[in-house]
């Protein structure tokens, strides 16, 4: 069983596009919460993450951070395990 992955994003942010691509390449299903024109959802993202930038990504209940953070986990070989065990 794999962990639930949730990402707050905007449609055209290049880091959001890269995060979607990274997850898709790993065949990971994820919940993509668009905050483009949804100030309440953006506010929710900031309250949960403490960050204002997109994307903001969670694996299970663990806040991973943004694209740079998830890409680093992948390069370090830690992302696949987190996806399995979270």
Q: How is this structure best described in words?
A:
With 86 residues, the chain is of the alpha+beta class. It has a single domain (5-85), classed as Glutaredoxin, CATH 3.40.30. The protein is built from four helices and four strands; from the N terminus they run βαβαββαα. It has helices at 14-25, 39-49, 67-75, 79-85, and strands at residues 5-9, 31-34, 56-59, 62-65. It has a four-stranded mixed beta sheet with strand order 2-1-3-4, with helices on both faces. Helix 1 packs parallel to helix 3. The longest helix is centred in the first third of the chain and has 12 residues, at 14-25. It is globular and about 35 Å long. The mean pLDDT is 95.
Which tags fit this structure?
alpha+beta, 45% helix, 86 residues, Glutaredoxin, 4-stranded mixed beta sheet, 20% strand
């Amino acid at each position: 069983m794999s962990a639930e992955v949730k990402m707050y994003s905007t449609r055209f942010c290049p880091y959001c596009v890269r995060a979607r691509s990274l997850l898709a390449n790993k065949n990971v299903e994820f919940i993509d919460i668009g905050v483009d024109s949804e100030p309440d959802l953006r506010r929710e993202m900031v309250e949960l993450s403490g960050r204002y930038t997109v994307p903001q990504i969670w694996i299970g209940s663990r806040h991973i951070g943004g694209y740079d953070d998830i890409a680093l986990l992948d390069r370090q070989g830690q992302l696949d395990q987190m996806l399995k065990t979270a």
